[in-house]
Amino acid sequence: MKKIIYILPAFFICWNMEAQDALKKWTLEECINHAITHNIDLRQQEQQRALSEVELNTSKNSWLPDLNASIGQNFDFGRSPSKDGTIVDQNSSNSSAYLSLSMPIFDGFKITNDIAAKKLDLLAATETLKKAKEDLSVGVASYFLQVLYTKEMENIAKLQVDFTGRQVARTEELVKAGRVPLSNLYDIKAQLAKDEASLVEAQNNADLALLDLAQSLELERESTQFDVEAPTIEDAIDKYISSIVPPTNVYDNAVVVKPQIKAQEYQLESSRKSLKISQAGYFPKLNLNASYSNGYYHYSGENITNIAFKDQLKQNERKTIGFSLSIPIFNRFQVRNSVRSARINILNRELALENSKKVLYKEIQQAYYNATASQEKYIASTKAVDAGKEAFSYAEEKYKTGKSSVYEFNEAKTKYAQSLAEQAQAKYNFIFRAKILDFYNGNPITL
């Protein structure tokens, strides 16, 4: 019994914590941050950037010397070489050790330019990763706004059911009072059934939108445990009108800050360094070389006296230091063609950069005109909502007094619902387009 007394409070505490976690509502910023942390494609992009870091480290280490060691053991029977190189009729064994060092001193600035190119490649990979994060943020924002839109459509469907439900009750009173025929009641109940079916469809659409958003976030939990925090938007025009900036102004900022442009610029500079790397093949190369070797010889046979091991190590050791100069004379035009390929690659990179800038400006133009068009549509839909509301209120009052038919009431109600739906669609479309312009301006996507 004492155990139960201690366990029950803990159970209720855990249950309450789980319930709170299940009811937690996510903001857009939380959704974006979670997606950036857990998205698999993005994590693969991060690994690509990590590979660029490794390649840069490898290039920097090219200045370090190569140090190699080898150890050998040979056995000769019958005739064998002596330490002075002559062949003798004796069995022998030979132990040898060799240590060599090679270090570049001058290589036509190949290593220097390769390090610079790898640094630029790393910067390009970093910008590519930023671009992937931005694209993911836009995708998540699109899913998030779709959830808000479907939820608003669900609320409109609930409103429709509420309107029709009230009129069913009112029609029953009118039928009892003998003011309207019984057929009116059947008609209004049939409309209520249609509205309820529309509500179920709207709820299903909202659930599917939540599922799409949850999957884009790589959430492991079921979508029933996931919901979003709807921001307070009293007037979308007033709140987001500052984002509607002319395309030229947006482009002037975007061409400087957008990662896809910066990545192309870094890749162009890297290709120019690659040209210098290829041109290094025309230059001679100077290396520093050093080595140390030693050995021990042991002969078998009669009247053979072997020198002691430590004395041989003193006698047989050899130390060498020197320089080697490699001068290219003819290499089957490999260097020449490598230089040609590098120049062509530079031209391609320049064209790719120019094309990226043109594509960016076109995207900004389209985003601007889409935003202004959705703004005008939102303004017009708001006026249509006001007019539809007044028309519906008038039709509702006439129906209450039995002065209009069910069809007139339903027609006014349907038009009002359509205007609300068009307004919701125009509102979230305008918000998304405004956020796209913010995105091109280098601003984070927030609501």
Structure write-up:
With 447 residues, the chain is an alpha+beta fold. It has eleven helices and eight strands. The strands form three sheets. It has a four-stranded antiparallel β-sheet with strand order 2-5-7-8. Strand 3 and strand 4 (87-88) form a beta hairpin. Residues 1-21 have low confidence and may be disordered.
Provide a brief overview of the structure.
The protein has 447 residues and is of the alpha+beta class. It has helices spanning 2-22, 28-38, 40-60, 110-176, 182-216, 236-240, 247-257, 259-279, 309-316, 334-400, 406-440; strands spanning 25-26, 66-76, 80-81, 87-88, 91-106, 227-228, 285-300, 318-326. Strands 2-5-7-8 form a four-stranded antiparallel β-sheet. Strands 1-6 form a two-stranded parallel ribbon.
The tally of helices reads: 11
Please state the structural category.
alpha+beta
Mean pLDDT over the residues: 87
Give the CA-CA distance, first to last residue.
53 Å
Low-pLDDT sequence parts: 1-21
Taking all Cα atoms into account, the compactness measure Rg is: 40 Å
The main β sheet shows up as: 4 strands, antiparallel
Query: Could you say which overall geometry the principal axes of the C-alpha atoms support?
Result: elongated
Fraction of residues in β-strands? 5-15%
Topology, number of strands:
8
Order the strands across the largest sheet as they lie in space.
Answer: 2-5-7-8
Q: Helix amount, in percent?
A: 55-70%
Keywords:
four-stranded antiparallel beta sheet; alpha+beta; disordered N terminus; single chain; 447 residues; 11 helices; two-stranded parallel ribbon; 8 strands
